[in-house]
Amino acid sequence: MEIELGRAKRARRAYTFDDIAVVPSRRTRNPEDVSTGWSIDAYQFDIPVIGAPMDSVVSPQTAIMLGQLGGLGVLDLEGLWTRYDDPEPLLVEIAALADGDATRRMQEIYSAPIKPALVRDRIAQIREAGVTVAGSLTPQRTQELYETVVAAGVDLFVIRGTTVSAEHVSSVAEPLNLKKFIYDLDVPVIVGGAATYTAALHLMRTGAAGVLVGFGGERHPPPGPPSAFTRRWRPRSPTSPALAATTWTSRAAGTCT
Questions:
Q1: Within a domain: residue 220?
Q2: What is the mean pLDDT of residues 68-83?
Q3: Which helix (H) or strand (E) holds 99?
Q4: Within a domain: residue 218?
Q5: CA distance 79 to 60
Q6: In Å, what is the CA distance from 226 to each residue of 58, 123, 189, 196?
Q7: Which of 19, 69, 154, 229 could disulfide-link to 94, CB 3.0 to 4.6 Å?
Q8: Is the pTM of this model over 0.85?
Q9: What's the pLDDT band for 218 if we cut at 50, 70, 90?
Q10: What is the tally of structural domains in the chain?
Q11: Contact at 8 Å (CB) between 194 and 213?
């Protein structure tokens, strides 16, 4: 449904995931007859679950466990696991920070440099467990670290930012040429996020194996006292995933997540 904004401008009505529900139609199917399996490039998965590349979600161990359960855990290669030999005490500290202290302290913690040796070791740890290995970098760090990531044996390379476009223009630094980078790389690339139909379409045309649809989300504090490290983030609207999925299916170009 479109809404008139004035001056010949229109907007599409959008919904959050709280606004919609899955309602059975005329035909239903027995759970035993349904497969939740999916694939991206040459990699097969039993459940349609990807662990987000966030320190609050995926560690090397949780990536291994999620992989053993049939999903895919994506490790943030710019997070604490590649900055500190043992980040566990820092993760515990962050979870206990008061809201007033969280930003300052987290900036201090994340100011430590990324260590290429730790990038290599974390990927090796996941690979030794025999599961599909996926690691994530932002577009700004990709040129700096991708050779270390690929040499370490990553299976799926994720380029993830708040919003990622097919072409970025900058007069300050040379931007990542996404299309050329994906073409030259021997590893399948998943890229995102994209918030619109057009942005998703352009990312598909770069040759990416998958496109992440959505950017950030609304903040929903969990029950109980809030903490700096237990915020839940989710896509703001199911509209963009629906449009992008339709485009991807029509192009028969791969998998949209």
A1: yes
A2: 96
A3: helix 99-109
A4: yes
A5: 11
A6: 20, 32, 35, 32
A7: 229
A8: no
A9: very low
A10: 1
A11: yes
